[in-house]
Design brief:
269 residues
Length: 269
């Protein structure tokens, strides 16, 4: 690992490279906050993908791409004489110090739950009461993550289930209401009830300290692996998927499940 001085030199080198590219590269010259935004979103998702795969080589690479975007936005701010990368770093450090009074002050917080509760209360004080509890949830967040963050922020000000086991009554209630509307074939109301049902399931996941977004992505990847197995074996059999019966595909699906169960951890690495 590098020393602190080496890290600072490396960060300075990145800033130097970006400043030169901004002056000399035709593509970099014309970039704006607006034009960079789609690329930033893509790079963030690529980092998330590497994190899900626990791919350290690509995590390092994608972190570099995200860091480059952070520095690029700071460089644009510097050109407009609005802020620079030092302002970005100092503002973040100041915020972290202010929001961690149990480290930099005399507030007591022995558990992560207490830290989170203090964090939300401090954020509300920062807003001087001018914004609502939920105003800090970005509107552009994917709906599943947004639901989790909404519920978590409400929890941090005391709006939550007293007994987490009670949430299952709500889940069952929402499922029953969804089934009722589906039987009526009312698409609009069915859509509303589906949303309520999904929201309640996400709430249950939160209460049991499970990350629903990670859980769903693991299931997505599991489905892809098993469906790819079906597709690969259909090719070996010389029979297109479109000509396979559901029973034949189910058999291959079960084979894929058995195959996954037989792989030892050392084999998968």
């Amino acid at each position: 690992m590098h020393t602190r001085e080496e890290k600072l030199v490396a960060f300075g080198r990145l800033l130097d490279v970006l400043e030169r590219l901004r002056k000399e590269c035709p593509w970099d010259k014309k970039q704006t906050n607006e034009s960079l935004r789609p690329n930033t979103i893509e790079e963030t998702f690529e980092l998330c993908d590497a994190l899900m795969r626990d791919d350290n080589k690509n995590i390092c690479k994608e972190l570099g791409d995200v860091l480059m975007h952070v520095c690029f936005y700071a460089l644009i701010g510097q050109e407009k004489q609005q802020f620079d990368v030092a302002d970005v770093c100092n503002m973040q450090a100041d915020k972290l110090i202010f929001r961690h009074p149990h480290i930099y002050g005399d507030v007591k917080a022995d558990t992560s739950e207490q830290v989170l509760q203090n964090w939300e209360q401090i954020k509300l004080r920062e807003k001087d009461g001018n914004k609502s509890v939920l105003s800090g949830v970005p509107q552009t967040l994917p709906s599943l993550i947004k639901a989790y963050r909404i519920q978590d922020k409400a929890r941090n000000v005391g709006f939550d289930w007293e007994d987490r086991g009670d949430v299952w009554d709500k889940v069952r209630e929402e499922l029953a209401e969804l089934e009722t509307e589906l039987r009526k074939e009312d698409k609009q109301k069915s859509t509303e009830e589906l949303g309520d049902f999904l929201f309640s399931v996400i709430n249950a996941a939160r209460l049991y300290h499970l990350n629903p977004d990670n859980a769903l992505e693991h299931t997505n990847q599991k489905f892809i692996r098993r469906f790819n197995y079906i597709e690969e074996h259909s090719i070996k059999q010389g029979k297109p998927l479109t000509e396979m019966s559901l029973e034949e595909m189910d058999q291959l699906w079960n084979e894929a499940k058995d195959h996954e169960g037989s792989i030892k951890p050392t084999d998968a690495e």
